[in-house]
Amino acid sequence: MLFQIIFVIALAAESMTAALAAGRRNMDWFGVCVLGCVTALGGGTTRDVLLGHYPLIWVEQPAYLLVTTAAALFTIVVARVMEWLKLTFLLLDAVGLVVFTISGCMVAMEMGQPALIVIVAGMITGCVGGVLRDVLCNDVPLLFAGELYATVSAITACLYFFGIQAGFPAELVTIVAMAIGFGLRALAIAFKIEMPRFVYAPVRDQSSKR
Amino acid sequence: MLFQIIFVIALAAESMTAALAAGRRNMDWFGVCVLGCVTALGGGTTRDVLLGHYPLIWVEQPAYLLVTTAAALFTIVVARVMEWLKLTFLLLDAVGLVVFTISGCMVAMEMGQPALIVIVAGMITGCVGGVLRDVLCNDVPLLFAGELYATVSAITACLYFFGIQAGFPAELVTIVAMAIGFGLRALAIAFKIEMPRFVYAPVRDQSSKR
Amino acid sequence: MLFQIIFVIALAAESMTAALAAGRRNMDWFGVCVLGCVTALGGGTTRDVLLGHYPLIWVEQPAYLLVTTAAALFTIVVARVMEWLKLTFLLLDAVGLVVFTISGCMVAMEMGQPALIVIVAGMITGCVGGVLRDVLCNDVPLLFAGELYATVSAITACLYFFGIQAGFPAELVTIVAMAIGFGLRALAIAFKIEMPRFVYAPVRDQSSKR
């Protein structure tokens, strides 16, 4: 199925982007592989652990681990070339976001979860990998920094869930949800659309420890 | 049951305190919601994942997610007002600590866990949410910084477990454990009682990499 | 069984090394215990959660928690003496690495996992505790910083898995894998053998946000 192929390409792309982040921090080759695998597979893993959905995808099909490891190692070789493909990788990251989100919704729906959990499962699958990458790189997660990223995931998940619930054919719903999600993300990148931020500076600063 | 009502109020309060922490770091609205939900529900989630106790509470009853999300968003509106209620929120946080601790003990006891695991389950439920908040905010967890917080959780868990084991009625034990735990935490806040710290500075500093 | 005794000694040693790290950050006594327990037991816990292998070892045998907590607290008393035993603890850490790795392989093989998952399970068991310690201490994981540590774990896991698969007696395979793994790690410490690093500095720095 086409969805499966796009899924694997997105896994590799996420792993490569994370490998670059590892390179920027001068990690060793092992760290590069770990960061690639955790970023690419961490969202689905977190979803499965939270839903109690065993075995995990990469435990059942270890080939996924090989794909993400190989992609991370390959990045060490082609890092210089990737700079010229910055936009390509930004768009592949957007593809990954919508594909992972939909795959997360699928898992939750197969388990018979209610609407809210399906959407949350989709968002976890789409977004948590990047959060784990940032925590391991000792950064505040980029996900919380205003970019229209999680919102795209939420919209994609809603489109998919309610489309399926409304009885439309699964292939059509998948394609439409992916197209709209991808389009939104591309617009957000192109026009630098941002979420509003909550800026809170305590007036009496000295008394606020927590 | 009254315990359930206090539980939900404490969830909302924890989420609101975390939302303020997000605002201090200028996170976007989505980040505010995630930090609120993770802080409020992260302790119970960690306990359930470690004990293999599925489904998670917020997967079974997604209404909890709505409460914590709404509380976090509400914080954006009322942040200025909350400054005048600092003490109220510090006390609500103390209520959350003892209520979450006891709820964690209940779950572990229902599973028939031994004493030590019941107490650890209570402490995980009471304390881990704040640790996750600090990790996501890229801070060293406040929990390890001397405040009498985890100790209060441990004492509350012991009181509850041994009270129930001794055959006292559950309602009485719950009320007494909550009252003593809350009182201890209030005293710790009022008199700034702190845990002793382990201050270790290597003599031959240059040779200590790890 | 001898393996079991070495396992418990290694648990205590890992907890003590982590307690020193806590002392360097002036954590309180509770933080010292938590960091000790998480570092010593975190690798096995992560493996079991990812493989869905319940109950966790320390939930089934809470005595492990007592060992790691006691070791962490004991460190507060003997920290000054431990400086003279730096090499001993570095070697005990190497013992822990190979023992934990092999114990992780054993669990995965009992579950009938394929080769790659057995090796990954061994590496997770051997290495993740230190990663959790570094995340809680708000550091970039030392594991990704070039030291020949995870590689030793991978080699030990391969030796064990393929040795057992080849039909050699389990005791022999365990001893040989431990000896070679420990020897490699000792050589890496003695000669400061390092993994190559992936150093990536974007040419057009201003355009690289991610």
TrEMBL record, chains A, B, C:
Residues 6-79, 91-162 form the Glycine transporter domain. It comes from the Bacteria. The chain crosses the membrane at residues 63-82, 89-109, 115-136, 148-166, 172-191. It is a multi-pass membrane protein. It comes from Pelagibacterium lacus. Belongs to the UPF0126 family. One of its GO terms (cellular component) is plasma membrane. The lineage of its organism: Bacteria, Pseudomonadati, Pseudomonadota, Alphaproteobacteria, Hyphomicrobiales. This is Trimeric intracellular cation channel family protein. The keyword Metal-binding does not apply. It is found in: Cell membrane. It holds the Pfam family Gly_transporter. Keywords: Cell membrane, Membrane, Transmembrane, Transmembrane helix.
